[in-house]
Write a structure and sequence with these properties.
The protein has about 240 residues and is an alpha+beta fold. It is about 25% helix and about 45% strand. The chain contains 5 helices and 10 strands. It has a 10-stranded antiparallel beta sheet. A hairpin with a 6-residue loop joins β1 and β2. α1 packs antiparallel against α5. The longest helix is centred in the first third of the chain and has 27 residues. It is globular, with a radius of gyration of 21 Å.
């Protein structure tokens, strides 16, 4: 029985390592040749603990990605409205400006082709489980990973928890169909300031123009400490 259990463990480890290598190869092949055009839309909702009423903001931009250039087109009326709202004398409102700023070129580039970002994530990943599981009626393999992103080298920051896991649904070609990430971070600054954040991200992917396009990303979580106490949801 001991030998059988050991053999099963070795076989399981070989399968996991092979699937992770297959995933890396599949992502590495998605180099983004050709051009892609579309609309990027972001909807953000935040609820402060002391207010209780959610604040919702929606922005969108035209996107064109080619092998050598990423073009992002923000509507001028939207930019003007954001500026006018932030400069109101009576009650300035910066939520629209913040939504535009948070959806930066780097974030949009990641949506247009998520493959490079996912390769960075799984570079430090350790396989925890693997199994067959359908996704929206399609046959798929599920790969569960634990990974550790780089930590800010600030000497005044003491990290108490830095837990990150990924669950990836892979198609027959090894390319992800969807993914789910869970994050839990607790830290303290200068001894007396504490911070905590827990969040989940769910992605739906599609292959277009030799890219892994994030067709949808939904994030929800909470932040507490360092002057913040709020829940949020971003799509």
């Amino acid at each position: 029985m001991k030998y059988a259990a050991l053999l099963a463990l070795l076989v399981s480890g070989t399968v996991s390592a092979s699937s992770l290598a297959e995933l890396k190869a599949a992502l590495g092949a998605l180099q983004g040749q050709g051009s892609l055009r579309g609309t990027y839309e972001a909807r953000q909702s935040k609820t402060e603990a002391d207010v209780g009423k959610p604040e919702a903001t929606t922005v969108s931009a035209r996107v064109e990605d080619s092998a050598g250039e990423l073009r992002i087109g923000w509507d001028r009326d939207l930019l003007k409205r954001a500026l006018d709202m932030s400069q109101r004398a009576s009650k300035p409102d910066t939520e629209l400006s913040m939504a535009i700023n948070q959806n930066s070129a780097n974030r949009i580039a990641g949506a247009v082709n998520y493959a490079p970002r996912l390769l960075n994530i799984i570079a430090t990943g350790q396989v925890k489980a693997e199994r067959s599981e359908s996704w929206q009626g399609r046959p798929a393999r599920v790969l569960e990973l634990a990974y550790t992103p780089p930590i800010d080298g600030n000497s005044s920051l003491k990290v108490k928890e830095n837990s990150h896991t990924a669950k990836l649904w892979l198609g027959a070609d090894g390319v992800p169909l969807a993914a789910s990430f869970a994050h839990s971070v607790r830290a303290s600054f200068m001894v007396f300031i504490s911070y905590e954040e827990k969040s989940t991200e769910n992605y739906v992917f599609g292959q277009m123009a030799n890219r892994l396009v994030a067709l949808k990303r939904e994030e929800q979580g909470m932040r507490k400490g360092a002057g913040q106490d709020a829940t949020y949801r971003n799509v």
